[in-house]
Amino acid sequence: MTTFALELDAVTKRFGDRVAVDDLTLRLEPGTFLGLLGRNGAGKSTTLKMMTGLVRPTAGRVLVLGIDMAKDPIAVKRQIGAMPEDMALMELLTGPQYLRFVGRMHGLDEALIAQRQEELFAILDLAPGPRTLVADFSFGMKKKLALSAALLHGPRILFLDEPFEGIDPVTSRTIKEILLTLQRRGVTLILTSHILEVVEKLCPLIAILDDGRLKGFGTLETLRQRGESLEALFVDLVGGERKGELSWL
Ligand SMILES: Nc1ncnc2c1ncn2[C@@H]1O[C@H](COP(=O)(O)OP(=O)(O)O)[C@@H](O)[C@H]1O
Ligand SMILES: [Mg+2]
């Protein structure tokens, strides 16, 4: 029996009477690169947070590499890397200090952390001043640091929430290259995006979420067979009717 990299069984998340994620069932083989696509408010971030143990489902079960997230979240977190939507960095540390903190939480020794930090900063072209605090990083620098933190311990699954938001095209390309390298090495990748082109170019497997529900799931080819283009299918699935015109323009 193969162990799925990720398994969601009838997962629901309610915030008060708002259902953010509704009865979501999803199974991913190891080595998959999934793009979770949906409009703003579709439930992508909430889904990712439940997959990474940041939010507890109201109902249902999340298994990561066969481990039940509710029963052993620490065992799960050892094996995954995550870049959450708010990045959750420590603003009063410098970049290297933050990575040292993250690395030590993963039980890595100082020399290894320093070596990996240098490699990550070099490849991401991240060069803050020696005393620059994370609080003073630009948005792009924070994203690079958050990605570095997610990769530091060599995760088997990487979760990225809107990794290309607010990122310049050069950095964007670097991140894409890193993700494709990870994919070739067998890392399971899951990213969210509301941008069709990002998912279309990068992710062989796509899940379309709308109003907390799974509206489409499959490879790019199978989804394309259902509509003339992924865009047409997306609009069709999530209902893109125009809401009228602005009265004063
Ligand atoms: N902590 C929270 N408290 C209350 N409502 C929330 C919370 N997080 C998300 N929601 C709601 O759940 C829905 C899905 O949000 P989210 O998962 O952030 O969507 P997406 O990432 O696709 O834009 C939205 O209606 C949002 O307002
Ligand atoms: Mg989101």
Describe the SSE topology:
Elements: E1 6-15, E2 18-28, E3 33-37, H1 44-51, E4 59-64, E5 67-68, H2 73-79, E6 80-83, H3 95-105, H4 110-124, H5 139-151, E7 157-161, H6 169-184, E8 188-193, H7 196-202, E9 205-210, E10 213-219, H8 220-226, H9 230-238
Parallel strand pairs: 3-8, 3-9, 6-7, 7-8
Antiparallel strand pairs: 1-2, 1-4, 4-5, 9-10
The site of adenosine-5'-diphosphate has 11 residues, from strand 2 and helix 1.
Please give a handful of descriptors for the protein shown.
alpha/beta; 9 helices; Rossmann fold; 4-stranded antiparallel beta sheet; binds magnesium ion; 6-stranded mixed beta sheet; binds adenosine-5'-diphosphate; 249 residues
Major sheet attributes: 6 strands, mixed
Q: Give the C-level CATH assignment.
A: Alpha Beta
Number of helices: 9
Distance between the termini: 61 Å
The CATH architecture assignment turns out to be 3-Layer(aba) Sandwich
Summarize the structure.
The protein has 249 residues and is α/β, with parallel strands linked by helices. The protein is built from 9 helices and 10 strands.
Structure explained in plain terms:
The protein is an alpha/beta fold. The chain has one domain (30-40, 73-238): Rossmann fold. It is 37% helix and 25% strand. It contains nine helices and ten strands. The protein has helices at 44-51, 73-79, 95-105, 110-124, 139-151, 169-184, 196-202, 220-226, 230-238, and strands spanning 6-15, 18-28, 33-37, 59-64, 67-68, 80-83, 157-161, 188-193, 205-210, 213-219. It has a six-stranded mixed beta sheet, with helices on both faces. Strands 2-1-4-5 form a four-stranded antiparallel beta sheet, with helices on one face. A hairpin with a 2-residue loop joins strand 9 (205-210) and strand 10. The mean pLDDT is 93. The structure holds adenosine-5'-diphosphate and magnesium ion (MG). The site of magnesium ion has 4 residues, from helix 1.
